[in-house]
Design brief:
The chain is mainly α. Helix content is 81%, strand content 0%. It has one domain. It contains nine helices and no strands.
């Protein structure tokens, strides 16, 4: 991060001079990750999966879909104004609803590029698969860990939880005591594993948020010529230590 910013001067590039909005958005994203990342575990995991496994194809894919959408809308609007029989009424308005829908479909099919849309859908599918795989693995691990913790807890507590439930339950329902004890321990184990997962996610999101916040703040300062990139290399240790402190503050927010 420091090297990337400091080398920008050597390349004659101003990291934030063209579009400062990118830095402000990056700062906002960093703050959200830093302080609220643990509250949005699923969303953060999905975003990171997209970022790592498919963003390089998702962005051009979305742009391709958008461009073809604009072309299709333009062709559709032109077709809606078409009056080939010159009777003063658009041809589309003289068709039944079913025929109008079929005509619109063929107009769109003729106007878009199927090869571009095929490549775009491939990129979006990759992102979808990456997100699903990441979420399944992440939460399957948490559930598996929770069940294991619950089983171990049940083995150590069975000698007193079952008698305790027998004393609390009426005579007709005491046969449920072993099942309640077993699945109660599993529930506690999964709950504990989920909190462990949230704590791990808090550490990850805080470190990621601190890095994003630090990078874009420094980039913005360089863009506004309030910071010399050479100073970054000279104070690398202090900057990284400050980033670590900010990250730790986010974990315990």
């Amino acid at each position: 991060m420091i090297s990337k910013l400091s080398k920008s001067r050597e390349r004659g590039i101003n990291p934030g001079g063209v579009i400062h909005v990118q830095d402000w958005l990056g700062i906002g994203y960093g703050v959200v990750l830093l302080f609220f990342g643990a509250a949005f575990v699923t969303l953060i995991a999905a975003i990171e999966a997209v970022h790592h496994f498919g963003w390089h194809k998702i962005r051009p894919s979305l742009l391709t879909v958008y461009r073809n959408f604009v072309v299709a809308i333009d062709a559709w609007e032109k077709d809606n104004r078409l009056d080939e029989d010159r009777d003063g009424v658009a041809d589309v308005k003289q068709l039944a609803m079913k025929d109008r829908a079929m005509r619109a479909f063929f107009v769109v099919a003729r106007s878009v590029d199927p090869n571009q849309l095929g490549e775009a859908m491939e990129g979006l599918t990759m992102a979808y698969v990456a997100v699903i795989a990441t979420l399944r693995v992440k939460f399957a691990q948490a559930i598996t860990l929770g069940i294991t913790i619950g089983e171990n807890l049940h083995e150590f507590s069975d000698f007193f939880t079952v008698p305790l439930l027998n004393n609390l339950l009426p005579q007709d329902y005491r046969r449920w005591s072993p099942i309640l004890a077993k699945y109660g321990c599993r529930y506690l184990g999964v709950t504990l594993a989920w909190y462990i997962q949230r704590f791990i996610s808090a550490i990850f999101s805080s470190s990621r948020g601190a890095a994003a916040l630090l990078y874009h703040v420094l980039s913005l300062l360089i863009a506004q010529q309030k910071l010399d990139p050479i100073m970054l290399e000279q104070n690398r240790s202090a900057i990284m230590a400050g980033g670590g402190g900010v990250s730790a503050r986010g974990v315990f927010f």
